[in-house]
Amino acid sequence: QGPQKRSNSTPETPRPKRAPSSRSPYGIFSPGSFSPSVTPSQKYSSRGGRGEVVASFGSVQGPAWSGRGGAAIVRLFGRPEGNLTKPYKFMFQKALDVREALAGRVEELGEVLQRHHGLEGFASAALPAQEPVTVLGQIGCDGNGKLNAKSVLLVGDREHSGGAQVPLDLSELPEYSLFPGQVVALEGTNSTGRRMVVSKLYEVTP
Asked: pTM for the whole thing?
């Protein structure tokens, strides 16, 4: 006998669909299991102080301190130009303003590195150097993954290197600990202008 052909006609009494069992994930995560109760609780409806402002930005929280001068006085910490005087939207800064702030921070930390370690000056990270030179910049990552010894590069400072990026060879360093964005001064050779072999690492100390 040959194989029997499957009937294409619709049966008169179709089998009912299986309801999801309690062990099935479709039954556990059904819309009915997430629907909240439409009747609010009595505790919520009888709450007091609706719409009342209980705290505001800039207000002094906690008990007032009383000393020889009386109550505590709130003063701005730092330079006046470094404090916010009006509301700003987070992550809505202009790209040029962010770049200027980062470049200024690199120059400021570069002066700290130069004074602390007694460095004479910084050279360009983009120019070939047969003799050891000292360069300033930020640590970057040449890849989409985590920072590793093969993907470390230096983004040179704006004053000396013009923001040029140079891959780093850290094989001669006995130990190091780096992270993307870290401002460092490096001493090494860059014979071809395409890769810098680092011999010394100067970090910013607290």
From this structure: 0.56
Burial class (CB in 10 A: 0-12, 13-18, 19+), 13: exposed
Query: Which residues on neighbouring strands pair with residue 187, listed in sequence order?
Result: 134, 200
C-beta of residue 140 within 8 angstroms of C-beta of residue 196 = no
Cα–Cα distance list, 46 to 40, 41, 49 (Å): 10, 9, 10
Task: Sort 111 into a burial class: Cβ within 10 Å, 0-12 / 13-18 / 19+.
Answer: exposed
Could you say which DSSP state residue 155 is in?
E
Asked whether 122 and 110 are in contact (CB, 8 A), the reply is yes
Residue ranges of domains in the chain, CATH in brackets: 83-205 (2.40.50)
Per-residue pLDDT, 63 = 53
Residue with tokens 């680092």: 198
Angle in degrees, CA 172, 177, 180, rounded to 5: 110
| Distances, alpha carbon 154 to alpha carbons 7, 45, 73, 101, 116, in Å | 72, 60, 45, 18, 21
| 176 vs 183: CA distance, rounded Å | 14
| pLDDT tens readout for residues 88-125 | 777 888 889 888 989 999 999 999 999 999 999 899 99
Radius of gyration of the chain (CA): 33
- Residue carrying the six token digits 């992550």: 91
Query: For position 155, what pLDDT does the model report?
Result: 94
Please list the ranges in the chain whose pLDDT falls under 50.
none
Helix (H) or strand (E) holding 203: strand 196-203
